[in-house]
Amino acid sequence: MAITLTERAAKQIQLQLTKRGKGLALRISLKKSGCSGYAYSFDYADELQEDDCVFEFHNAKVLVKRDYLSYLDGSELDFVKEGLNSTFRFSNPNIENTCGCGESFSLKTSEKSKENI
């Protein structure tokens, strides 16, 4: 199972960790949210936890808890700028539907496996 980063995403992660003055990686997780069910959560991690999986591309690391890997497998994280806005954006093949506002999504996996989120 794997998650990849574009060069733009890697540069943004490195930039933000440099601004913070510390940090190991970007932590990616899922949370129940919105009208479709789930949303991505991003935070900067200062240490590795026991159940973390580490992915490194272009000298930047992302951490994902082992429980979330099946929901993110095959995903690519990019960093995009649109006008004055900029954000991390996922291309995730495990998404079944997204809500109208684009803030939340539902997953293709069974409801039983989603109980870990």
Q: Any overview of this molecule?
A:
The strands form 3 sheets. Strands 3-2-5-4 form a 4-stranded mixed β-sheet. It starts with a strand and ends with a helix. The protein has 117 residues and is an alpha/beta fold. One of its GO terms (biological process) is iron-sulfur cluster assembly. This is Iron-sulfur cluster assembly protein.
What is the topology?
Elements: E1 3-5, H1 7-20, E2 25-33, E3 37-45, E4 52-57, E5 60-65, H2 69-72, E6 75-82, E7 85-91, E8 95-98, E9 105-107, H3 111-114
Parallel strand pairs: 1-6, 2-5
Antiparallel strand pairs: 2-3, 4-5, 6-7, 8-9
Secondary-structure element pattern, one letter each: EHEEEEHEEEEH
* Largest beta-sheet characterization: 4 strands, mixed
For this structure, what is the CATH homologous superfamily? HesB-like domain
The span between the termini is 18 Å
Q: What radius of gyration results from the CA coordinates?
A: 14 Å
Can you count the beta strands?
Answer: 9
Sheet with most strands: strand arrangement: 3-2-5-4
Number of domains: 1
How much strand? over 45%
The percent range for helix content is 10-25%
Low-confidence stretches: 110-114
- Count of DSSP H/I helices: 3
The overall pLDDT average reads 86
Tell the overall outline. Answer: globular
CATH architecture: Sandwich
**The CATH topology, please?**
Hypothetical Protein Aq_1857, Chain: A
CATH class: Mainly Beta
